[in-house]
Amino acid sequence: MYKDTLQKVKRFMTETGMLQNCSEIILGVSGGPDSMTMLHILNELRDEFGYRLRVVHVNHGIRGKEALRDQQMVEKICSEWKIPCAVYNYDVPALALSWKMGTEEAGRKVRRIAFEKEKENAVAIPEQVRVALAHNQNDMAETMLHHLARGTGIRGLCSLKPLNGEIIRPLLCLERSEIVNYVEENSIQTVLDSSNMEDDYTRNRIRRHILPLIEQEVNPRAVAHMAEASEIFGQAEAYFTKLAGEMAVGYRKAKDRYVLDHEFFKKETIIQTYVIREILEVTGGHQSDLTSGHIKQIRDLYGMQTGRKADLPYELEASRVYEGVQIRKKNMIAESDSETEELKIQNLVVPGETKWKQGCFTAKIYSYNGEKILEKKYTKWFDCDKINCELTVRTRRSGDYMAVSQSGGHKKLTRCMIDDKIPGELRGKLPLVVDGNEVLWIVGGRINERYKITSETGRVLEITYQGGNVQ
């Protein structure tokens, strides 16, 4: 039986690739049956796989003499097995109050801190170091039930992965009963954490009451079946996450700014969910605190009127814009805010070239003999004889207007931009060709009706903008 379990773990580690390019493993060892079994198995296999071992034991400052007993036992075994052991002490209850979180979450946080510190003592380069945790299939089943009860998606049903970055879980192929048998067969010294026998924590209640009842009343192989389901959920999560990452790139308009267009909201709901989540995580830089409620807020925005907004975690903001829904950092600085005064206004050289940011305006004048005028987005033609002064290129200012009819009727520039569905965040950035406060051309958009070519036009002013899509 001992050899069967050893081979089972060995096969599992090989199939999952958790030891590829690995030369050193840092093990989290509490002294309980799970972590002592992991320590024993990895110690048995280290010559075969050629890795070094080092142990981290964390004293959480909760159980007094019992915690000291656990620490001394782990130190003793590591000394006998000639494995380096580092002990880290934290006052978790005090830190939980300081960090404004529960003791369980604070405990996880200090363990992560301890692993990070111990990695600095590793002999191997960082890319070849793994951190081993002793979760088993029962832990996986308990986590699934816990997440299901609290509310979760696919990700929460496969959160315990065999390999997740530098984290490895060699015992995810074993049920707890197999670990108990392994401990007994090999006479491995272990300790019992009395807090695991209390019902103060939700996870303990699931472990001690709910999961055993499911195995007793529903199916004795429930744990194994839930482990199989978790693997399937993991495959689905990996697929959708990869697809969402590829799709999100297409909606990126600038650093920390994405626009989900009308076509996006015609896609399947699950695709929308994963893409939105990917954008929020990449832009916000975090995964925690982002919930299905935030994703629903963004999806609901699409059905609202332009201008509606939703505040999101990590200084993110979603807003309904003409093109769809925009997601961006609240503190994004408009390019125009960082420009020098010299770049904010340029005289248009006619004929000739005028530099503007990364682009360039080219202007020329020629005689008009009734030729057909084509419609082009970045080349426009004007009745040169109606232009009485020098033109300039700049961004919008208060008082700007455009003629919207040949008879001279005009509208404020802002109203024209709204009518043309130009997004609010772009209105102050678009270059304009102007005569004082009269706008001849919103580059990339409409031109002034008063300066359009007519049958009476004798000379044409042709202006072309090159240098990328200004919208």
Task: Give the helices and strands, then pairings.
Elements: H1 2-16, E1 24-28, H2 33-49, E2 52-59, H3 65-80, E3 85-89, H4 92-99, H5 103-119, E4 129-132, H6 137-150, E5 163-164, E6 167-168, H7 176-185, H8 202-217, H9 222-249, E7 252-254, E8 257-261, H10 269-284, H11 292-301, E9 309-312, E10 316-321, E11 324-329, H12 341-344, E12 345-347, E13 352-356, E14 359-367, E15 379-383, E16 392-394, E17 401-403, E18 410-412, H13 413-419, H14 424-427, E19 432-435, E20 438-442, E21 459-466
Parallel strand pairs: 1-2, 1-4, 2-3, 4-6
Antiparallel strand pairs: 5-6, 7-8, 8-11, 9-10, 10-11, 12-16, 13-14, 14-21, 15-21, 16-19, 17-18, 19-20
Helix pairs in contact: 2-7, 4-5, 6-8, 6-9, 9-10, 10-11
Question: Care to give the gist of this entry?
Answer:
The chain is an alpha+beta fold and 471 residues long.
CATH superfamily of the largest domain: HUPs
What distance separates the N and C termini? 68 Å
From the coordinates shown, what is the CATH architecture of the largest domain? 3-Layer(aba) Sandwich
Query: What's the CATH topology name of the largest domain?
Result: Rossmann fold
Residues in β-strands, percent: 15-25%
| Molecular shape | elongated
Q: Mean pLDDT, nearest integer?
A: 91
Unreliable residue runs = 333-343
Instruction: Count the DSSP helices.
Output: 14
What is the number of domains?
A: 3
Cα-atom Rg, whole angstroms?
Answer: 33 Å
Helix content: 25-40%
Q: Count the strands?
A: 21
CATH class of the largest domain equals Alpha Beta
Biggest pleated sheet: 6 strands, mixed
The SS-based structural class is alpha+beta
Major sheet strand order: 3-2-1-4-6-5
